[in-house]
Amino acid sequence: MFDIIQREAIYLWYYFSVQLQQIAPYWLLGIVIGSMVSVFGKDKIHNILVSIQQKHLGIAGLVPASLLGIASPLCMYGTIPIAASFSQKGVKDDYLAAFMMSSVLLNPQLLIYSSALGSFALSVRFICCFLCGIIAGLLVRIFYKKKSFFRFTKFYEISNRDTDPNIFLRLLKNIFRNMKATGYWFLIGIVLSALFQRYVPTQQFASLFGKQEYFGLLMAATIGVPLYVCGGGTIPLLQQWLTEGMSMGAAASFMITGASTKITNLSALKIVIGTKNFVLYFIYIIVFSLLCGLFVNMI
């Protein structure tokens, strides 16, 4: 019995160490770049969104609003207070919807993490998140012309923690906070990936999430809701799933539903959009993720 346990431990350590060597450089690079954007570029990114509103670009302004959401390094709890301050400055709900939607789905740090999945997967993730933000803004613009979509009365702009007068120390403190926030889930993701490699039959997984299985898209979108806790933690899983036969469309569905339905995101979002809009948000995410998955699998 002890020999069996020892053998399994060796196998698991091997899978774990291989995954760690493959993913860790992207995680560390993402931490550094994300912190640099947060310390040196966050205010500039947010000021650009306000200036876009002032230029009266109309529908075309949804494009830079969505891109700025991806560039913003904040999580949902950080994005909502910032969006509340934008609203007070006159930024309309459609621009805010585009900004917040893409910000929920992707940020500079997660973008670097996703490079570990390959250039095609990275492109798919970026384009899907970008379009998701634009379409969300467009829907708000069409259906909420005469009424507000957001209710920011309970949110106020949070204080900036990057205040150390020494720029180098300011960056180091931000890097440490990011490592502390994501490191645990990153390791959990690698552990789950190692367990998956060892104990889940490749053929069964490929048949469930394979390219020709429409049911696989629905499954991927569904498991994204409870399983997705941290973006960095899902990268090792996605890398292994894609290797084992998961279609890129299923991966896209998982990445969209997972990031947009994290419990921390949902609890914050429900406060500012209300119950009815919350249900509409959830329906939009599921429908968009499935359509994206279908389209990606057709490519």
Task: Describe the protein's architecture and organization.
This protein has 299 residues and is mainly alpha-helical. It has one domain (16-145, 185-298). 80% of the residues lie in helices and 0% in strands. The chain contains twelve helices and no strands. The chain has helices at 2-54, 62-71, 76-88, 93-105, 108-114, 119-143, 167-199, 202-209, 214-227, 231-244, 248-260, 263-298. Helix 1 (2-54) crosses helix 7 (167-199), helix 4 (93-105) runs antiparallel to helix 6 and helix 6 (119-143) packs across helix 11 (248-260). The mean pLDDT is 79.
In short:
The chain has one domain. Helices cover 80% and strands 0% of the residues. The chain has twelve helices and no strands.
Q: End-to-end distance, in Å?
A: 49 Å
Secondary structure: helix percent: over 70%
Shape from CA axes?
Answer: globular
> How many structural domains in the coordinates?
1
Could you state the order of secondary-structure elements as H and E?
HHHHHHHHHHHH
Largest sheet: none
Arithmetic mean pLDDT: 79
What would you report as the Rg, rounded to the nearest angstrom? 20 Å
- Tally of contiguous helical segments: 12
**Uncertain ranges:** none
State the secondary-structure class: mainly alpha
Approximately how much beta-strand content do the residues carry? Answer: under 5%
Number-wise, the strands total 0
